Amino acid sequence: MHLRAPAIVLSARVHGETAVVARLLTEEAGVVAGYVAGGRGRGLRPVVIPGNIVEADLRSRSDSQLPFAKLELVESRGPWLNEPLAAAAIGWACALTATALPERQAYPRLWQALGGLLGAICHASSARDWAGALVDYEALLLRELGYGGERFRGGDLPEILAEMDRLAGPLDHYLLADRRGDVIAARSRLRDLLGRME
Description:
Elements: E1 2-15, E2 19-26, E3 30-36, E4 53-59, E5 68-75, H1 84-100, H2 108-123, H3 131-144, H4 157-175, H5 181-195
Antiparallel strand pairs: 1-2, 1-4, 2-3, 4-5
Helix pairs in contact: 1-2, 1-3, 1-5, 2-3, 3-4, 4-5
């Protein structure tokens, strides 16, 4: 396997003393995992933050082997990690995507939608401007994986929160069954933070 492509970092799990296993979303190959040597070090730790856009170079000797990944930072989400609402939204969107999508299956619409959503979270003037896009992304994920999910046509914050509440069941039942744990807790925290804006 050899893949060089722009990617969105979805998660980074500690592996050994200094490395991480990063799960990345690419347009061509979907979710791919890669071993990042030194990923816990000072130089690469800011690169493997979920939500970051990177240029990924993944190589392995066979398709069954975990590829080695070299990552170059293109766009950082680090500045928004100090903002609780933005950090919660980025964390939820990335965790949901990492958990729900199978590896090495392309979902170009999800790649584009997640990139747009992350950009909106970081650059919109308030959460009211991106919360509807987040709900629409959840519905798109359900549709792309074959579980329905109507497109959210927008609305004010109470309508967005009502739609979030409606989607909680299908997300939990179809996409996060047997894998809930911290993933659904991240959504609950985000829903609570958004509810405080009402």
